[in-house]
Amino acid sequence: MTETSFIYRFEPASRPGAPPLLLLHGTGGDENDLLPLGGMISPGSALLSPRGRVLEHGMPRFFRRLAEGVFDEDDVRRRALELGDFIASARERYGIAAPIAVGFSNGANIAAALLLMQPDALAGAILLRAMVPLSNPPRAKLDGKQVLLLSGQADPIVPAHNSAKLAALLSDAGADVDQKILPIGHQLSQADVTLSRGWLGGINARAA
Ligand code: MLT
User: Fold this and answer.
1) Is 2-207 a domain of CATH 1.10.3720.10?
2) Of 15, 129, 146, 173, whose CB has the highest number of CB atoms within 10 Å?
3) What distance, in Å, lies between the first and last C-alpha atoms of the chain?
4) Substitution candidate for ligand 1 out of 57, 63, 65, 70 with most atoms within 8 A of CB
5) Which residue ranges of the chain lie beneath pLDDT 70?
6) Which residues are catalytic?
7) Does any ligand 1 atom lie closer than 6 A to the CB of residue 69?
8) Domain parsing of the chain, residue ranges
9) pLDDT (tens digit per residue) in 96-150
C-alpha cells in the first residue's frame, strides 16, 4: 500500500488498548522487517510500517547520508517532516492514536529526528542503536514523552559518547529517557525484545 508515496504495511490492532506502533527499519531493510519484532514486543498492537524512500546503492533508508554516521541534515529535516505527514494521514485513514515509534539504526535515527522536529507526531519511542540525528536541532518540547534508548556497548557505528549525547538532548527537552547500554554491538538481540516488551508494559500500566 502507499500513503503520501510511502510503501508500507499496516496491521490493525487485535487487542483493545494496545498502543499503535510505528516500525522503522534499518538501512537495507523494508516494511516487512520489523513486523515480527512489533508482534513480539506488543502483541495485538496496530502496526504501521513504512519503507524508507531514500535509496543508497539500492538499499532503502529514511534519509540521505554523506558517509557512515555523517548525515545530510537538510535531508534529515525534510524526511522527518515527510514521515510526520505520512503518520498523520495513516492515523486519519485507520483511526489510530499517535504511535510509539520502534526504530532500529537508521530507523531509530529518523524517529529521534521526528521527536525533535515534530514531537506531537509520536506518543513515545523505542530507539534501538540510535545516534544524534541533527547537530543543531530545534528546541523541542518533549515534556513527559517516554523514550527507551537501547545502545550497544561495542557498537562500531554508534560511539558511546554519541548515544549519551542523544539521551541528554532528549531529556534536556523534557523527555523521560530510559537509556540502557547492552553488552553487544549494533545488531539486535533477545535483550532488545525483552527490554522493549517490559518497557511498553510499564507504559501501558501507567496509562491504565
Ligand atoms: C545511519 O545512517 O542512520 C546510521 O549510520 C545507521 C545506519 O543506518 O547504518
Assistant:
1) no
2) 129
3) 33
4) 65
5) 1-4, 206-208
6) 105, 155, 186
7) yes
8) 2-207
9) 999 999 999 999 999 999 999 999 999 999 999 999 999 999 999 999 899 999 9
